[in-house]
Design brief:
single chain, 277 residues, alpha+beta, Glutamine Phosphoribosylpyrophosphate, subunit 1, domain 1, 7-stranded antiparallel beta sheet, 6-stranded antiparallel beta sheet, 7 helices, GATase_2_dom, transferase activity
Length: 277
């Protein structure tokens, strides 16, 4: 599992989320408290919006706490909207192309969780990505596949619906291959104007997700874990929820992947008669 943090609001330095808080994202990289693994050292990344519609992107394979370039960047760059991620691999290689966030045009995306058995049906998942988008497939993660499938499913006009359809396709493949947990995810994504986040699991173990509005900062943080242990006003996001953040507003809707009643079999075509739990 991974840890991530996002922010939307009045411009702040990246370090105000990434490195300065007592339980900052860099601290979580080596001492996460609400994660299956305390260490998240398989790379990091940050995508931020500033003067152009497309986000800036910086990713590397070092542990976040040992990269002095990341700290230097965070101390100097201000942004009103950014996504940052520290990675713990669920099986794919430690490489820059496998580090989050992922970007496409003005969209940025990051994910924490797993799709059960992905290493067994990665080819089938890749085949679901349209040819027109496949040249954007740089790495080998389930997260990037989910993102590109969502782009193909209409992310530009319908972020929630696109992710419900994309997540449902990968869920069905996991069910067809009989590997659990079929789907666990928290995601953050943005088009540069709004910040979106979701929390979902096909079982009872959805990864943690919180958000908090700061009146003094005039902005909102959306995180895997609270950034300060002494702040009691972090709002937990319930499983099965899609959030939209814009200015000081937070709107929640149900998130339900569009799945079939039968998973996709090992050929990637015909359904298997299996029970979806």
């Amino acid at each position: 599992m991974c840890r991530w943090a996002a922010y939307i609001g009045a411009p702040i330095f990246l370090e105000d989320i990434i490195s300065r808080p007592a339980h900052s994202l860099i601290v979580q990289a080596r001492d996460a408290s609400e994660c299956k693994t305390a260490i998240n050292a398989d790379g990091f990344g940050v995508a931020w919006y500033a003067h152009r519609p497309e986000p800036g992107l910086y990713r590397d394979v070092l542990p976040a706490w040992s990269d002095h370039n990341l700290r230097a960047l965070a101390e100097q760059v201000k942004s009103s909207l950014f996504l940052a991620h520290v990675r713990a691999s669920t099986g794919t290689a430690t490489s820059r192309n496998n580090c989050h966030p992922f970007t496409h045009g003005r969209w940025s995306f990051m994910h924490n969780g797993q799709i059960g058995g992905f290493e067994r049906f990665r080819k089938r998942a890749d085949m679901l990505i349209p040819d027109a988008l496949y040249d954007q497939r740089r790495g080998a993660t389930d997260s990037e596949a989910l993102f590109l499938l969502a782009v193909a499913e209409g992310l530009e006009d319908d972020p929630k619906g696109a992710l419900e359809r994309a997540a449902g396709q990968l869920h069905d493949l996991s069910v067809g291959y009989g590997t659990t947990p079929h789907l666990r995810l928290t995601c953050a994504l943005s088009d540069g104007d709004r910040l979106y986040a979701l929390r979902y699991a096909s079982d009872d173990f959805a990864p943690s997700l919180y958000h908090r509005w700061s009146a003094s900062r005039n902005g909102r943080a959306v995180v895997s874990e609270p950034l300060e242990t002494g702040e009691a006003d972090w709002v937990p996001v319930a499983p099965g929820t899609f959030m939209t953040f814009e200015e000081d507003q937070a709107r929640s809707e149900p998130f339900v992947p569009v799945t079939s009643s039968a998973g996709m079999d090992c050929t990637g075509t015909a359904p298997l008669k299996v029970m979806v739990r």
